[in-house]
Structure formats: structure tokens, C-alpha cells
Amino acid sequence: MLPSLRNTVLNAGQPIKLPFQCRQKHKLRVPIQLLRSIPSLGKEGDVVEVRETKASPKKTLEQQQKEILQRLPKINYEEVRGKLEHLPTLEFTRKVLETQPSATEEGSSDNQGIYGSVTQSDIAMTLRDKHFLPIDKEWVQIDSKIKTLGSFEFLVTLPNTEPVRLQLQVTKHE
């Protein structure tokens, strides 16, 4: 009698089944034919009943990626390259590191260290967010992370196109 009380609630002496427990008991079972032997279910070719969730086929990661790529809009890389060629210099602002001025550094604003750096990801994000260009960080080529104030060049190489040389300026954040 204890298991039946666990599935019911007494309301003025009348047992009432809880909705979530009813749903659990009446899950839809679907007959399927096994395409290969599964130790817990049966041999290849057997028809067995399983819950509906087990009967739905799972897609492989490759199938899911193909479907996602098919839903994405096609990118005209030549058009994107044309827009890149007409971009102005990209501007980044960073705080300057506090250092003791030495005799060689006085008067030069370049080569001052900055907090953080400017990376491929930063450049790609700026091109996407401010200029609405579909640029991946893997397409951006810089020599190394930019860790000082000044002007720098970088390349953007889109698939199946020639690289585009662009400029960026790192300035002091006030």
C-alpha cells in the first residue's frame, strides 16, 4: 500500500493523482526495428517498443554543422574585400601603463606600454560590430599582440581572395 500512496495525494479522503506523475506513467511507446544489435534491447532486425524519446534519431555533430552552414546566408567575399579596402584607420584606445620616465623615453609618446593589448579578436570584433563586416578572427593577421601606443599594419585574408592591408591606431585613453 505504501507505493500507491506515494503516487497519490489525499483530498478529503479521495485519492487524486498528481499531473506530473500521470505524465511519467503514460509516456508514449513506439515500436522500432533495430538496425544493429543493442545488448539491452535486442538483436539486429528485432522489433521492440521504446519510449518516444529513444526512438527519435540523434544527429551526428557533422550533420548538425552541415545544417547550420546551409542556413547561413552566403557571403560574397569579393564585396566584403571591396568594403575593407575603403575602410579608414581603425582606432583603439587603451590606458597607458604608469612608468618612470627615463632620458630616452622623454618626449616620445610611441612605445608606451598599455594595459591589455590589441589582438586578432579585438580587430575582428571591431570590424564586425562597428563596420558590419563578417570577419572571423582567423582571417586577421598581425605579427604579435599589440602592447604599445602607435600605428600598426595588419592583413585581412578572406577565403579565396587576396589579402587586404589595413591600418590601426592605438591611442591614449583619457
Task: Please outline the helices and strands.
Elements: H1 2-6, E1 8-11, E2 14-17, H2 19-25, E3 29-33, E4 47-51, H3 52-55, H4 61-71, H5 77-85, E5 90-94, E6 113-118, H6 120-129, E7 140-141, E8 146-148, E9 150-156, E10 164-172
Parallel strand pairs: 5-10
Antiparallel strand pairs: 1-2, 3-4, 6-8, 7-9, 9-10
Protein name: 50S ribosomal protein L9, chloroplastic
GO molecular function: structural constituent of ribosome
Domain Large ribosomal subunit protein bL9 C-terminal: 105-171
Summarize this structure briefly.
Helices cover 26% and strands 29% of the residues. It has 174 residues and is of the alpha+beta class. The protein folds into two domains: 2-57, no CATH class; 77-172, Ribosomal protein L9, C-terminal domain (Ribosomal Protein L9, domain 2).
Walkthrough of the structure:
The protein is α+β, with helices and mostly antiparallel strands and 174 residues long. The protein has 2 domains: 56 residues, no CATH class; 96 residues, Ribosomal Protein L9, domain 2 (Roll), CATH 3.10.430.100. Helix content is 26%, strand content 29%. Strands 5-10-9-7 form a 4-stranded mixed beta sheet. A two-stranded antiparallel sheet has the order 1-2. The chain is elongated, with a radius of gyration of 31 Å. The termini are far apart. This is 50S ribosomal protein L9, chloroplastic. One of its GO terms (molecular function) is structural constituent of ribosome. One of its GO terms (cellular component) is ribosome. Pfam families: Ribosomal_L9_C.
